[in-house]
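Lecture 7, part B: from sequences to assemblies.

Below are the input chains for today's worked example.
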Amino acid sequence: MERAEVLSKLTVIFRKLFSNDSLALTNELTAKDVGGWDSLSHMLLITEIESAFLIKFKLKDLNRMKNVGDMVDIIISKL
Amino acid sequence: MIKKIVFNIAVVFLAVFVLDFVIGGTLRNFYFRETSGSFFRGTYSMEITKADILVFGASTAVSNYVPEVFENSLGVTFYNTGQNGLGIFFQLATLKSVLKRYTPKLIILSCGESFSKDKESYDKLAYLLPYYSKHKEIRKIVELKSPFERIKLISEIYPFNSQIFTILVRSIEIAKINDSSKKGYDASYKRWAHKIDTVNTYTTYAEDQNKVMALREFITQAKESGANIFVVYPPVFQKFNMRQEIEIYNRICLIEKVPFWDFSRDTSFSNNKSLFADVDHLNHNGAMLFSGLVAAKIKQAINKDGP
Amino acid sequence: MTFTSFNFLIFFPLIVILCYSTPVKYRYVTLLTASYFFYINIKPIFALITAGVTLSTYLFTRLMGKTNSWPWKKRFMVINIVLILLPLFFFKYFRNINAGIFVLLELFHLKCPLPEIKLFLPIGISFYTFMAIGYTVDVYNEEIEPEKNLGILALFVSFFPLILSGPIERAKNMLPQFKAQINLDYNMVAQGLKFMLWGYFMKLVVADRLGIYVDAIYGNIYQHNGTSLLFASFLYPFQEYADFGGYSLIAIGTARILGFNVMQNFKRPFLATSMSEFWRRWHISLISWLTDYVYTPLSFSFRKYKVWGIVIALMITFFISGIWHGATLAFVVWGLMQGLFLSIEALTNKEKSIFEKKHNLSKKSWYVSMGVCFTFILFAASEVFARATSINDAFTVYRRIFTVPGTLFIGRLSILIYGVFGLSILLLKDLRDEFAPSWFLLFENKHKFVRVIAYSSIIILVLLIGVFDGGQFIYYQF
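Predicted structure of the full complex, as structure tokens:
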């Protein structure tokens, strides 16, 4: 899967989870930039991503996810 | 760069120094202008009174010794320097300040406080801080508070820490009572309503050497001044065998060869709860009776020794 | 020696001079010596425990680095964590576990008279133990290389600005700084001094002063009426913020003067509009630590339970936070209350944001104020359990608040006046920092004259109404 495809699929998930239809994802985007994305909702996001892409993360992967860009990289590596 | 840092710190210190000097000086001015209240009592005791009889002590001194009884019976002037909660350190400091100015004829030390090691007694030395600069004789006592008091006292404000509100309020009070008319006596008209307690156990504690030494110094200095000193343990509304404090007073008085009059278990008081305001303090009726007793005993003691 | 004892004011400048006089390569040695000197001055034997924790951590992280076997790495990590938790458990919880076991034995008439062991809790043990555990896990997760220099690691564990009461720092942040070439920087020193000054103001003028009143009420729960108990419970969170927040600022300022950047620990917590926001502003270093090392692994393991997985993870995390604060059931209740508040927020978050968006509430000041007040009330309510020494007492406080009317106990009026005055200044500054950070600049004013007056005024205020006679820092015995 290409980065762009991953990113667009992620955008759908983000928009649904954070109730924000205009949310635009960039590589540099972090939790600080998105209303409602915090440690409480982060795990929900992770589960949604896992079921959408049919992958399973490791705890170590979480630590490496500093922004959306890292997230895309890690997703691709697991596909 | 170090120069810049040091210079800037020095500038701030200078500003603080100036503000501290001005504000501290103002506070000092208002503090010593008081003519009533606890600050005034301390100042009056240390700097003004020239009474023939001085009573020293804490709360028992305040409540148990009626000025008129002593004045009439012994034909002398009376002042009580005691204050609630202020222990042997304060009593010694007051004595030193007094003896620097004159020698009273009679000194009564009213007992009661504990000689255990507790932080509060040292914290309360803060009461003496305003007097540190003028009274060289009490400096060693004040320095017991902590090893750094001398440094802290560089600040003019420090002696008046936490007092600004009280000082300001008292300075704008219109009706001021000149406290010396009460001569340091605070009469209580309460009556103790409960039955007498019996304490069977006698637990000892580690003695605070500073306090014991202060007591010793008090008695020595009082003796050496030429005054007649009497150490009195007032009546207590409790049945007990012994208290460590009584042993300590007794021990020191024996060594120094001064009279120790122990009324703590005197049944003419402990059988009569109407004489007590609470377990440790007499009310006005009890104080009248007690003062009469003590005055008579003093009269006897003095006459025995010759005029 | 603590930050508020006079000899620290002599010790610290000396250390600063010594530190910057030492050649850069060996500065960590000076700091390490100073840190152990600082700690030994409290009680020599505690330094042994710190050294023990350091040695164990050093050994096992080096072992982790030497092996390529993941199962072995894991074993080393677990062994070290267990080992360094032992002294913490022993000192902190021994008495309570012991008492609990005694109660059980008594129930079965099996108790035999044993001499009571009087244990004094090593100061700071809860803080540096967590820092060492964090480092161990970071090595396992390959976030940081095992430190080869024992001295540097020892400094990390014992660094005197942090050892007593945090902030709980991370090896990733501190170790590189300890090894770096730190030159004297004017701005760091200036900023550090400002932090220290404000920290002393918070601690001595606000916290210790309010503490006198709160102690008087909470020390005599059965003698005071509901009004006084309510007022004291209202004041206590402010006292704790000024106490712990002030102390943290002094720690951060101290480290800053020595050239180190340490994380912020408090960020105007009472302006939070929800409990989740509150816990991003209160004791940040602890929450951040718990989030990274407890909550995230837990919520990750439970993620298949969706929101309920989060709830379980929250409850466990805050249970641990509770017992970290104190070895009593009351603190457990306190911790569980935090978990409960956050769980409810997590469960209702979606509905809440939809509702807020629909009515455009998040910009309305009345709505924000309501959130601030409600959050404060929740926190203050939980703090009753932290302040009262037992569950029984906490319930008594609640009971009396609702059933025992009366007039407010004043005691010495000056105490409340000084305390409320100091608190107002503190809250005004926080409001300014939050909503208008470039207005009314005093410490940061561009005119030197204004700055100097500001610094001196705060110092004078401390001299005038600071509490000097031994106010004990609340988090000291951790």
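Note for the exam: Residues 70-107 of chain C form the longest helix (38 residues). Keep this in mind when comparing with the next example.
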